[in-house]
Design brief:
This protein is about 80% helix and about 0% strand. It is mostly helical.
Length: about 100
């Protein structure tokens, strides 16, 4: 996650609070418009590197959300409900042990 100065965060947070998406479609729209405004405001030309920078920023935010929020949620649910991949994990552990015995 990019780290920016607190003063800039405060300014941006005022603008962010003006948006209030209620659905995933509305959230997608807001994100799309932010990216579009960034491209237009910065006069980004239609070339791979510039457009890839926008994609990278969006993907970075998605990756951070997954790492910090979604993965933690999944870990809680595994503790509560068990791991749906338990059988597969046990299988791989057995395979690893068998390979380890062969290598020694």
């Amino acid at each position: 996650m990019p780290h920016i100065k607190e003063s800039l965060k405060s300014e941006l947070n005022v603008l962010i609070r003006l948006t209030d998406p209620k659905t995933k479609a509305e959230l997608n729209y807001v994100i799309t418009q932010l990216a579009s405004n960034y491209i237009i405001h910065n006069d980004i030309t239609e070339n791979y590197n510039s457009l890839s920078d926008v994609h990278t920023a969006m993907q970075g935010a998605a990756d951070e959300f997954k790492r910090l929020i979604l993965d933690k949620y999944e870990d809680k649910k595994i503790i509560q409900n068990g791991n749906a991949f338990e059988k597969l994990l046990d299988y791989f552990e057995q395979v690893d042990q068998e390979i380890g015995r062969r290598v020694k």
